[in-house]
Specification:
alpha+beta; 8 helices
Length: about 325
């Protein structure tokens, strides 16, 4: 059986220029035809070859403690996050229309509340700034989604109990969260570790650290703000040679992540809203078939899963508490 080390023999002579995307791609295609490698075997090698050689040629700047692409990328993401933070702060200070569905037209708003009561998830993708202008991110993609679920019969404290129980997030949010741990806590201020495992055509494992602050706005309302302070793609996860890839040589599946949660108790339950702004590299030319689904679909699917898993975890705890109370009465 031919192996990876035999691939160069199937291509043209080794006088092609290194770092030229088109020629690398041609070489890989010819090699795949010669060697009849399966997709699952060839993907790691394929991804190494097709990445432009100068994509991560310079040290990467950072926002806070997390490296974020190049200087222009970091600046663009910081500006976008700043604008989103200003809007969120203004909405929380105003204290009305806490959920994004509250700002819909009456017919659409009623339909959203009906769908939520029936167990649905209401999602919205934000594509423009609050001013209405388009936003340009050089060599990167900013993904901005917000969603809402309704947890019937829950109280605000029930939801906060699950969200703040980070040591058990690997249980609540499996398989998306593979490991979780509270690294430190000072009242409502948390520093946490989460290992994400996300799969869409390819599987990506990421070690992340987050700074999270919760605020109780009233007896029926609360919100939180989370910033990823460290994001690293994991190579060979779960193996003896596991390591975090340096930012200058990772694949750019996640460079930044900012999250805003809101919770409102009403209608005999709790509405939970999560808004996530994440940053990835742009999709390299020719790799849309493989990287495209991961980069474009995962942000939406991850948010949907997170909200549904939150509802499930809260309801599971409520049922367990109810069964325990019932057993005491017997």
């Amino acid at each position: 059986m031919r192996r990876i080390k035999h691939l160069p023999r199937c291509g043209p002579p080794a006088r092609r220029k290194a770092g030229v995307f088109g020629r690398h791609l041609l070489c890989v295609c010819q090699a795949a035809r010669c060697c009849s490698l399966s997709l699952s075997i060839s993907i790691p090698f394929f991804m190494i070859l097709v990445q432009p050689a100068n994509l991560f040629s310079a040290p990467q700047p950072s926002i806070g403690n997390a490296s974020v692409g190049n200087a222009k990328t970091a600046e663009a993401f910081a500006n976008y996050v700043r604008a989103t933070e200003v809007r969120n702060s203004a909405e929380l200070q105003r204290g009305t229309d806490l959920l994004w569905i509250d700002r819909l037209a009456e017919t659409a708003r009623k339909r959203s509340y009906t769908d939520l009561a029936q167990g649905g998830v209401e999602l919205q993708q934000r594509r423009k700034l609050e001013s209405g202008g388009e936003f340009h991110c050089p060599e990167c993609m900013i993904h901005h989604w917000e969603g809402v679920v309704f947890i019937p019969g829950a109280r605000l404290d029930d939801v906060l109990r699950v969200l703040e129980d980070y040591d058990r997030h690997a249980e609540y949010y499996a398989p998306d969260v593979a490991r979780s741990k509270i690294e430190s806590r000072d009242g409502d201020h948390f520093r946490i570790f989460l290992r994400f495992r996300r799969q869409k055509v390819i599987t990506v494992v990421l070690n992340t650290e987050h700074d999270v602050v919760y605020t109780r706005d009233s007896a029926s309302r609360a919100h939180s703000r989370s910033t990823a302070t460290h994001i690293a793609e994991v190579e060979n996860p779960g193996k003896p040679d596991e390591r975090e890839k340096p930012r200058e040589s990772d694949n750019g599946f996640l460079w930044g992540m900012e999250t805003w949660w809101r919770m409102e108790e009403k209608d005999h339950g709790v509405y939970v809203q999560s808004e996530v702004v994440s940053l990835t590299r742009s999709i390299p030319v020719g790799l849309g078939w493989m990287i495209g689904p991961f980069v474009t679909a995962v942000p939406k699917e991850s948010l949907t899963f997170t909200l549904e898993a939150t509802r499930k975890a809260v309801l599971t705890q409520l049922r367990a508490a109810s069964a325990k109370d019932w057993s005491k009465l017997r």
